Amino acid sequence: MLDPLSALTEPIGNMPVNDKTPEPVASARRRVRRYRMTGVIVLLLGLGSAGAVYWRGSHSADLADDPSMAGYYKAEARQMGMLYGKEGLLIEDLSNDLKQPGTQAFLIIAASIVGAAGCFYFAPQPGEDDETG
What we know:
- It contains 4 helices and no strands.
- It is mainly alpha-helical and 133 residues long.
- The chain has a domain at 72-123.
- The chain starts with 5 loop residues before the first helix and ends in an 11-residue tail after the last helix.
- The model has no long low-confidence stretch (mean pLDDT 80).
C-alpha cells in the first residue's frame, strides 16, 4: 500500500528544487539595478510624453491668436479684475499658462526628473551592507 503522505513530499516529475537562499550581495546588486532601470524608464517615458504633448498641442488650431478676439479678452480681463481683484487676474493668468503645450511639457519633464532622481537617490549604494539598514 502506498502512504498518502509520501505523495505530498516527493517531487513531481523531474523539476529541480532550489533550496538556496539568494546571497545578500547579489540581492543588493539586483535591487540597485532595478532602481536605476526604473529611474531610466521614468525619465525616458517623461521625455517622450512631454515631446508628444508639446507636438500635439503646438500643431492644433489655437483660437487665442485670432485678432477678432482681442477686444473680448481685454473686456474679460477688466471684468475679472473688477470681480476678483489682482489675485483673480493672477489665477486666471496661471490657468491660461497651464493650458499652453510648452508649460505642460515643462511640468511633465520636471515631474519625470524628480521621479527619476528619487529612484536614483533611494537606490542603495553598491558598497552598503543589508545588515546596516
